[in-house]
Amino acid sequence: MYFRMLHDEACGSVSYLLADLDAGEAVLVDPRGTDAPVLLAMLDEHRLRLRWMLRTHEHDAALPPGERRALQALQAPLIMHEAPHGAVAPAAPPVLPFGGEVIRVLATPGHTRGCLSFLWRDRLFCGSLLAVDACPFQPWPADPEALWDSVTQQVFTLPAETLLFSGHARAARAVSQVLEQRRTHPWFAHATRDEFLARVACLAAPPRDSAS
User: Metallo-beta-lactamase domain: which residues (predicted)?
Assistant: First the structure.
């Protein structure tokens, strides 16, 4: 297996490349159009066919010009729960195969209304799901009730040793662990659902069109 992390120091965005080298197939999680030339070079270097591009979530206002066109050059299906601007996104099956591996697709709405998380082996790629007030593009959850359910019922019920990979790592670590977050997360650990929702309600109300 082959695993790489690509971190943009300027904006903090993190992308991930997973590959089955024996089968020659790869998956990208949260790829960025600006990285397309590097990603293509990495795929070519290891003779990999890109099987899927997976998007945990998206902030339309933060997309640079030509983002979608650049990603199209990677020539693989883009899996995301909600497509922006009214476009139709391909439906994500619960399991995505690549090579001899599989990725489980989990619906984890809350940060944005269409968030997905992707479970591969002992690793969950969950975007900004745990960044309740720290995402550089949206410092509040689009759907607090759904966010509480996604974190407590989907993420925190995974095995304690499961690694959590973030979509942004500017002033925080990119990788943590389910056990650690259950015990220490500043919003979810030692809080009830009502306490969480009351605290979120004190955050500034988001613009109506901020979440996608």
Answer: 12-168
For the segment 30-41, what is each residue's pLDDT rounded down to a tens digit? 998 888 889 999
Class of the CATH domain delimited by 2-201? alpha beta
Q: In the chain, where are the structural domains located?
A: 2-201
Show Cβ contacts of residue 73 under 8 Å, excluding neighbours closer than 6 positions: 36, 40
Task: Output the furthest CA–CA distance in the chain (Å, rounded).
Answer: 51
Per-residue pLDDT tens for 102-147? 999 999 999 988 899 999 999 999 998 998 888 777 888 989 999 9
Helices marked H in 7-143 — which ranges?
36-45, 67-72
CB atoms within 10 A of CB 130: 22
Decide: residue 69, CB within 10 A, 0-12 exposed, 13-18 middle, 19+ buried. Answer: exposed
Distance CA 97, CA 85 (A): 28
Does 157 or 7 have the greater pLDDT score? 157
**H or E stretch at 14:** strand 14-20
- Residue type (1 letter), 73: A
List of E strands, 30-174: 49-54, 78-79, 95-98, 101-107, 116-120, 123-127, 163-166
* Nearest-angstrom CA–CA distance, 62 and 90: 22
CA–chain centroid gap for 161, Å, is 19
pLDDT of residue 48 exceeding 60: yes
